[in-house]
Amino acid sequence: MIARELSATRRPQGPPRLKDVASKVGMSTATVSRALTGRGPVSPGTKRRIEAAAKELGFVASYHASSLASGRSRNIGVVLPYVDRWFFATVLDGIASTLTAAGYDAALYNLQGENFRESVLTDFLLRKRLDAAAVVSLRLAPGETEQLLSAGIPLVGIGGSLEGAPTISVDDLNAGLRATNHLIQLGHCRIAFIGGPPEAGRSFPMSSDRRRGFERAMSTAGLPIHERDQLVSDFTFLGAYQQVKNLLAEPEQRPTAVFAATDEMAAGAILAARDLGLEIPRDLSVIGIDAHPLGEAFGLTTIDQQAHHQGTRAAQLLLRQLAGEPVTAGHELHRAHFIARSSTAPLGSNSSPA
Amino acid sequence: MIARELSATRRPQGPPRLKDVASKVGMSTATVSRALTGRGPVSPGTKRRIEAAAKELGFVASYHASSLASGRSRNIGVVLPYVDRWFFATVLDGIASTLTAAGYDAALYNLQGENFRESVLTDFLLRKRLDAAAVVSLRLAPGETEQLLSAGIPLVGIGGSLEGAPTISVDDLNAGLRATNHLIQLGHCRIAFIGGPPEAGRSFPMSSDRRRGFERAMSTAGLPIHERDQLVSDFTFLGAYQQVKNLLAEPEQRPTAVFAATDEMAAGAILAARDLGLEIPRDLSVIGIDAHPLGEAFGLTTIDQQAHHQGTRAAQLLLRQLAGEPVTAGHELHRAHFIARSSTAPLGSNSSPA
DNA sequence: CTCACTAGTGTAAGCGATTCCATCAGTGGG
DNA sequence: CCCACTGATGGAATCGCTTACACTAGTGAG
Q1: Is there a contact between B236 and A63 if contact means CB atoms under 8 Å apart?
Q2: In angstroms, rounded to a whole number, what is the distance separating the alpha carbons of residues B242 and B269?
Q3: A170 - beta bridge partners?
Q4: Do the chains contact at A2 and B58, CB–CB below 8 Å?
Q5: Pick the residue with more confidence: A352 or B293?
Q6: Closest alpha carbon to A262 in A151, A157, A145, A170
Q7: For B14-38, what is each residue's pLDDT tens digit?
C-alpha cells in the first residue's frame, strides 16, 4: 500500500486519477477510459468534454495500471550487442525516434556481455514487460523466437535472419559484389579485403556476406585471392589502421586496392596508407561500406547501407504489427546506394579520382 | 479483461503467477511475496522452499503488477540530446550496463527534436513510469527539476548543472587550461581553438568551458588570441576538417598549434592539415579532448574525460539514491587524464614528437 | 406497431502483485 | 508463572486502470 490515507476522500497533491476526471464530468470511469483510449463507443459530445476535463486536470493515465489491466505496455525493447559503435547507435537512433514519435518507449537491452541474454528474453519479453522487440544483429536460439512469437510478441530482426519474423537488412552480398566490381572495373587485380571476425558469440557475423560478395566477384573475374590480403579486424578504425599498415609495409607484394567491410575500417586503411607515404587514390584505391560521416572527409568512395533508415523501417514494421496489420515474415533486403567519391581511381592513373 | 476464461481454474500455458508458487509450497501469496522480494520476515527454511519452487516453475513477477502495487518500477530514464554521437553513446553505454547489471531497465529518451521534452518529464517521470532519471547535457527548466525532486524522483545530471541534484562532469575549464598550457609550454604562441556552437536549444554548450580554459591560459601567458583562429564547428570530424582546412589554407598567417574541444574535431584537423601537405607535429601540433578511439590511430595527444566512467558513475549515484542512501546534491567534478601521444611537439622541432 | 439492433453508458470484476493488520506461537524478564 | 514482545504467517484490501456484461433508449426494417 502506498497511500492509505483517510480513505479515498483526501489525496493532498497526488496526480489526478481517472476517477477524478470521471467525477468532474459526472460520468463513470468506464466512459472516461473509453473516451481517452479511443476503445469503445463514446458520443462525440461526451468525448469532447472528457478530453477537456482531462487536459484541465493534467490527467495522464498511470502507466502501470493501464498496462496491468490491458496487457499492453507501450514499451518496445531494442536488443543489440553494442551501443557505442556507429552502426548500432545509428540504427538505435532511427528506431528510438520513430517509436517515441508514435508514443512508445524504447527500452535498451545491451547484450555486450552475453550474460543477460536469457533474462532479457525470459523475464522481460515473456512477462509482458515489452510489447514487441527489435533484435539487431543478434542470433536468437530457434526456440526463443518461436516462444516469443507464439506469445504474440511482434519481433523484427535487423541484419540477420530471425526465423518466422520479418527481417530487414541491406543486401550485403550484393554490396560486396558491387564494391569489388567497381575496383575490378578500374583495372585492379590485386585487391585486399578487410572484414570482421567470422563470428562472435550470438551476434551475427557482420561482414561475412560482404566478404562472400568480394570472393564471388573476384572468382567471376578470374582474379586470384591472395591469402595474405585477407585481413580480419575488429571493425574499429584503429584495428584496420594497424592491419592495413602491416599489409602495406612490404612494397613488393602490395595490393593496389582495398575493400573494407565498413567505412571506419576503410578510413583506417586510408590513414595507414598515407602514413606509409602512399597517395590515395594514386597508389591505392580504397572503398568501404556504410556512408559513415567519417568517410566524407576522407573522400571515401562507399556504399550507403542506410543504417538510420533500417532502424526507422524496423520500428515501422513493429508499430504496424502492433496495430494489427498483418506483416509478412519475410526478409526485406534493402539495396544499398553507391556513393562515388575520390578514394578510388583507375589502376595506374595519375592521381585523378575515378 | 484479457483472459477471463473459465474462472481462475484453467490457465492453459500462461506464465506462472505468484499464486501458483504459493499453492505449490502451500503458503499464502503474502509470504511468497515477502520471500521473493526480501521485504519482511520469512523463516530461512520457508524462504528456501519458496525460492526453489519459484525457480522450478520459472516464476517471474509481473512487472506491471508489482510496479502498480509497490510504486517502484525498476525503470530508469536516460534523457539525452543525441545517441549517435560518440560521447553520448559512450555515456549511455556506461549508464545502461550499470543499470542492467543492477536489475534495472534503461529507457531511452532522445530529445534531439526538443519536441517531446514536455511530455517526457510530465507524463513519464511524474506518472511513476520511471523511478529515476539521468539527464545528459540537457538544461532543465528550474521548475521542472524541483517538481521531479519533490515528487521523490532521484535525478542526476551529466555534463551540466542541475539545480538541487547531484551532477557529474569533467572539469572542462581545467582540461582546457591544461591542453592549452601544454601547447604553450612547447613554445607555441599562435594557437587556434575549434569548439562547438555557443549554445544549442536546451542542451548545454558543450565546449564553452574548454574554450574559456583556452582563453584564460592564453591571457595568463600573455598571448594574443586571433579572432581568425577561433573556429566554431558542429562537433563532427567533417565539420572540423573543413573549418581547419580553410584556416590553414593561407600559409602566411597560420597557427602553429590547434586545440580542438573534442578528439573527433582534432582528428579532422589533423586530416585537414595533412591534406594541405603539412606534417604533424612538425608543422602543426594538435591536441584534443576525449580519448576517442579514433585518436589512437592519429597519434593524437588528448585529455581523457572518461565518458564511459561518467555514465557508470551517474548510474551508481542513482542506484544509491534509490537504495535510500543520502547523496549530496553537489557537483562532482572529475579530473581528466592527460594522454601524451605524437601529435604535439615543441615549436620548430624537427618532427620528433613532444 | 413491433422487433432486432446499435450506440452510449454504468456496474463491477478483474489484472497480479504488495503490504497493512491481525493472529499466533515462542521466549526471556520480572 | 504471567506478560509484553518478537518473528512468522495468512487474510484481504488496495494500486489505478480496462473491459465484459447489463441495461436503456433510439432507429429502421418488416
Answers
A1: no
A2: 8
A3: A334
A4: no
A5: B293
A6: A170
A7: 789 999 999 999 999 999 999 999 9
pTM: 0.88
> For A73-115, what is each residue's pLDDT tens digit?
888 999 888 898 999 999 999 999 999 888 888 988 887 655 5
Gyration radius of chain A over CA positions: 27
A62/B105 touch (CB, cutoff 8 Å), yes or no: no
Report how many Cβ contacts below 8 Å link chain A to chain B.
Answer: 148
Q: Are the beta carbons of A138 and A204 closer than 8 angstroms?
A: yes
In whole angstroms, give the CA distance from residue B71 to residue A147.
30
Q: Could you tell me the pLDDT band of residue B287, with boundaries at 50, 70 and 90?
A: very high
Where are the alpha helices (H) located in chain B, listed in sequence order? Answer: 18-25, 29-37, 44-57, 63-70, 86-101, 117-119, 142-150, 172-185, 208-220, 237-248, 263-275, 293-297, 307-322
Q: Give the gap in angstroms from C-alpha B354 to the nearest C-alpha of chain A.
A: 19
Q: Please compute Rg for chain B using Cα positions.
A: 27
Nucleotide nearest A17, from its CA to each C1': D16
Is A96 in contact with B110 (Cβ distance < 8 A)?
yes
The spacing between the Cα labelled CA in B40 and the C1' in D9, in angstroms, equals 11
Q: Which three cell numbers, joined as nine digits, stand for A345?
A: 581511381
D15 C1' closest Cα residue: B69
| Interatomic CA distance for residues B262 and B132, integer angstroms | 30
Alpha-carbon distance A107 to nearest alpha carbon in chain B (angstroms): 4
Among left, alpha and beta (phi > 0; psi -120 to 50; other), residue A263 is alpha
CA–CA distance, B21 with B11 (Å, rounded to integer): 14
